[in-house]
Amino acid sequence: MNGCTSHPRADCPTSSTIACQAAGFEPHIAVRTEQAPSALALALEGLGLTLVPGNVVAPDFPGLMLWPDPPVRRQLSVYTRVRPDPITAAFVAAIRRGTLATPPHILDRLGSPL
To answer: Domain limits of the chain?
Structure first.
């Protein structure tokens, strides 16, 4: 099965590649793009599968969506040069709590992740 991945550097492993390798196989990347929405559009046109953040998927997305199994997790880091303002501080606090960042329309369609 071909895949579409969204990462600008061909020599840099993507979340998709790392997830496939962890599952025991090497993906065949048919197309690389710098934009996750482009990878989603290419997959929708039948070029292959893609793994994109949930916030890229529109509520009316007509394609098939599945949770990755095993789940794919990314570590997030926050950096600032100055003391964070209240909104930034709230964002950092939410990340520390491990807030699920999956949009509600995806949770409605797929249920909770594994």
So the answer is: 2-110
